[in-house]
Amino acid sequence: MKTLLRTLLYLALIVWLGAEIFFPIVAAVTFTTLMPDTHAAGTIVGHLIRILHGTGMVSGVIALGLLALAPAWNIYKPRNVLAPMILVVLMMLFTAYSQYVIIPAMDRDQMASGGAINTNDPANPYTADFNKLHNRSEDVELVILLLGLGTVVTVAWAEAHRDLHQ
Fold first, then answer.
1. CB 62 within 8 A of CB 8
2. How many C-beta atoms surround the C-beta of residue 87 within 10 A?
3. What pTM value is reported for the model?
4. Is the pLDDT of residue 78 over 60?
5. Which of 37, 87, 135, 150 is deepest in the core (most CB within 10 A)?
């Protein structure tokens, strides 16, 4: 049972971080492939980021649940799971911020500009705001990735600490 719990925890983290790492590549390929039609590329990437966020939230709930169960099943000591749990909660909060604050604001800017954003027209106030939000979205995704890497490090530390003290 202990091996199953640790495996599921690692899998939840791998899925979330793998998606975070792979997403910018998919976005770049999408925009490069559909270069003349940035609206279509943006629509595809918008759908994909919503999937990324959903995947992250599910993975986060699973990771939190497994980390919470780990001390009860004598897998990790309670104090050793505190740091990874805090990091996962922060990852989920940043994901929710992007999903429920940034993306809806970007959608509003897009609709207010007539349904398509020309990111090369900084004189348009909707475009300027959209570009600002897009940059913030990229920063938030980077923070989520860095928090995820921190989570992996703290789980590895808990694992090593468990092995040394059993």
1. yes
2. 22
3. 0.91
4. yes
5. 87
pLDDT tens digits, one per residue of 9-63? 999 999 999 999 999 999 999 999 998 888 899 999 999 999 999 999 999 999 9
φ and ψ of 135, to 5 deg: -60, -40
d(CA 23, CA 16): 11
- For the chain, the three-class secondary structure string (H helix, E strand, C coil) is CHHHHHHHHHHHHHHHHHHHHHHHHHHHHHHHHCCCCHHHHHHHHHHHHHHHHHHHHHHHHHHHHHHHHHHHCCCCCHHHHHHHHHHHHHHHHHHHHHHHHHHHHHHHHHHHCCCCCCCCCCCCHHHHHHHHHHHHHHHHHHHHHHHHHHHHHHHHHHHHHHHHCC
Q: In the chain, what percentage of residues exceed pLDDT 70? A: 96
C-alpha–C-alpha distance, residues 19 and 28, integer Å: 14
Tokens of 33: 């492939």
Structure tokens, 142: 């980077």
Backbone angles phi, psi at 29, to 5 degrees: -65, -40
